[in-house]
Amino acid sequence: MRNIGFGIIGCGLMGREFASASARWMHLQDMRARPEIVAVCDTNPALMDWYSDHLPSVRQKTTDHTTLLANDEVEAVYCAVPHMLHAGIYSDIIASGKHLLGEKPFGMDRGQNAAIMALLHGREGQLVRCSSEMPFYPGAQKVIDFARSGALGEIIEVECAFLHSSDINPDKPINWKRMVDVNGAYGCMGDLGMHVCHVPLRLGWKPHSVHASLVKRVATRPDASGARVPCETWDNATITGTVGTGAAAFPLVLKTWRIAPGESNTWSIRVLGMEGSAEFTTKSPRQWRFMRYARGGAQCWQVEDLGYQSLFPAITGGIFEFGFTDAIQQMWAAFVDELAGGDARGFHCATPDEAAEHHAILTAALESGRENRVVDVEYAR
Ligand SMILES: NC(=O)c1ccc[n+]([C@@H]2O[C@H](COP(=O)([O-])OP(=O)(O)OC[C@H]3O[C@@H](n4cnc5c(N)ncnc54)[C@H](O)[C@@H]3O)[C@@H](O)[C@H]2O)c1
């Protein structure tokens, strides 16, 4: 099995998730290659010790990402930094010729995403993907396969949601994800939008227009000193898009909520059709529900316990449960498989084009929510 030298830029919450997934690569079976983290970069030097303590392969620690990019041992980079830094650092990574799995939203706003996209032309040999791990849950894969099989018939409605609840506490301290100048004006949509757009876009469900209801509930939050400071970002967004035209048109509902009472990290997808329907939620991680309907027949939902039927085979017995850290590892398996010449078993990570399309949707949604009107989605040609 080939080792692929990886560098991590941004050693916070998500950098550690990748490091953990790579450290238990033996969990996966029949992989073509394995990631070896050889270099890490963060402007906060204290964060990098955790990596060198746990990963003997880390030979470079730097506070300057250009130093990491000059390292010949680094073939591919995972970048997980605050949104305002995506355009600058992703552009440097792409220009360096190294492969990139970049975190969403892949540019803080549409303009910054366009700057990244402009650099990708003519770089066919360089693999660039955008992080989005929730569709790698077995139940999500079942819903995707069900839709791809044509079982839905005429589509009635599609809904994809990502719900968090911790922001319901107005005393939760502010962090960069609640600051417009660091997270972007999309607010919760920039944070969670790629998660809800990934599967609809992959299945070809591109809304041509949207209406968004944006909710702002918590106006101030405590900072590190305890003083209350403005919290400007949108808390919740409910976007209703229209896919298709005429009699075949259907609503695509996308929910990105940071204030969803009782929800910790719930990602769900539900597809409703005239002949078949299916749904999956991470609240019931081992199950998916589906219905096949024949005209005049009974309408019976079936529930199947899937256990651990992952896209990339793993050592875990099929009776056991799949969770968030497994979804992260499966996403990494898809990226590494592509790097090693595979087809990611038919479900590759989100592409730069899909990230750009999600920016088109979010940009229209932001305009719609601010002005309370339906806005056409303008996709790049
Ligand atoms: N896929 C997911 O489920 C998921 C979940 C959370 C966050 N994210 C995304 O991951 C990215 C990072 O989020 P996070 O939660 O890990 O944030 P975080 O704040 O925990 O980590 C970001 C890190 O970037 C570092 N950093 C800042 N400037 C830097 C620079 N110039 N060079 C190198 N490092 C620098 C910070 O010091 C920090 O350690 C964001 O794009 C976010 O949207 C994805």
From TrEMBL:
Gene Ontology molecular function terms on file: nucleotide binding; oxidoreductase activity
GFO/IDH/MocA-like oxidoreductase domain mapped to chain residues: 142-278
Keyword Transport part of the UniProt annotation: no
Domain of life: Bacteria
Organism in which the protein naturally occurs: Paracoccus alkanivorans
InterPro entries attached to this UniProt entry: Gfo/Idh/MocA-like_OxRdtase_N, Gfo/Idh/MocA_oxidrdct_glycsds, GFO_IDH_MocA-like_dom, NAD(P)-bd_dom_sf
Protein name: Gfo/Idh/MocA family oxidoreductase
Sequence intervals crossing the membrane: none
Keywords: Oxidoreductase
Limits of the Gfo/Idh/MocA-like oxidoreductase N-terminal domain: 5-118
